[in-house]
Design a protein that fits this description.
Shape: globular
Strand order of the largest sheet: 4-5-6-7-3-2-1-8-9-10-12-11
Number of helices: 11
Structural class: alpha+beta
Strand content: 25-35%
Helix content: 25-40%
Oligomer: single chain
Order of helices and strands: HEHHHEEHEEEEHHEHEEHHEEH
Largest sheet: 12 strands, antiparallel
């Protein structure tokens, strides 16, 4: 089965704002529309993301990219401004192939906006299929359904039946599935959070020190710079202690690598039962210092060859 690029999911997500009249925001919990057998669930509060200082500082990079600029222009032409999107929730299956998404935003069900995007961005693979009784948003190998005027759900074929059952209110959802204990512990007030199970082979491929990793939850705090909050749930408390010791050893090695102590002091490592906790808090000043260091360490360009 073919993987669906996340960028295409984002393009479908952009359909969410263009309504010419105000619409009541639906009281829909996206987790009730994602399959219970998801191995990973992630949430993005797009409104909070756009308000973050770090996003605002780097927005110019998006505008400067020709392909991104073409996409933004097309969205504006089709009356689908990015500023209208509210949340995007994603689920990934253990096979790494099947993906489901729930987008919440104003006017997701406006068919003419989707048709406009199809004409403006013909190379992106988005189209509105009206051959069935209910319109379908087709995006590569994924198919989307309009769940409510402000809610669009999208899934790859392996999850199509689960998606139909969830929309009908008869399916098993991630909100009450195996990930529920992890989801209950994520900081829901963060603009970005995630929780999931980690297959053994995937943990080993990440790093030998993480070979005992079974579950992970985390979040990004973007209110003033960048805050990273991670909890790595290991196979047992002894494994967690060994993992923490190895991470501290590697972190101490960074102190001799030229990184400013003021930045390293913003990193915290700890343990709570079987979990290894990692916290990083960087304000905008520390981020600017890191960028300056990266620029200073960047190799000088090679001289042009003599004619």
């Amino acid at each position: 089965m073919r993987r669906v690029p996340v960028s295409r999911l984002g393009l479908v997500a952009a359909v969410a704002f263009a309504c010419s009249r105000p619409a009541a925001r639906p009281q829909v919990d996206p987790l009730t529309l994602l399959p219970a057998d998801a191995s990973l669930v992630a949430h993005v509060d797009l409104q909070a993301l756009r308000a973050a200082p770090l996003w605002q500082q780097n927005r110019a990079l998006l505008d400067a990219d020709p392909e991104a600029r073409r996409t933004l222009d097309a969205l504006a032409t089709c009356r689908v401004p990015f500023d209208g999107l509210r949340t995007l929730d994603l689920a990934v299956a253990a096979n790494g192939i099947d993906v489901a998404a729930v987008l919440v935003g104003d006017g997701v069900g406006e068919r003419d906006r989707i048709t406009c995007l199809e004409g403006q961005l013909p190379d992106r693979g988005i189209r509105l299929d009206t051959s069935e009784a209910e319109p379908v948003v087709v995006l590569g190998g994924a198919r989307g359904r309009i769940h409510a005027p402000d809610v669009l759900v999208l899934a790859t074929p392996g999850w199509s039946q689960q998606l139909d059952a969830l929309r009908a209110g008869t399916g098993a959802a991630a909100a009450t599935g195996p990930l529920q204990p992890l989801l209950a512990r994520v900081p829901a007030d963060r603009p970005i959070w995630f929780a999931g199970q980690v297959p053994t082979q995937a943990a080993v491929s990440l790093a030998p020190a993480l070979s005992g990793l079974e579950r992970v939850r985390g979040a990004l705090d973007l209110r003033d710079g960048l805050g990273v909050e991670l909890a790595l749930d290991m196979r047992g408390e002894d494994v967690a202690a060994a993992t923490l010791a190895e991470l501290r050893r590697q972190f101490d090695a960074l102190r001799g690598a030229g990184l400013p102590p003021a930045i390293l002091d913003r990193v915290g490592l700890g343990q709570a039962g079987t979990e290894v906790t990692i916290e990083v808090r960087l304000g905008m000043a520390e981020i600017a210092a890191l960028r300056g260091l990266a620029e200073a360490l960047r190799p000088a360009p090679a001289p042009a060859p003599s004619p």
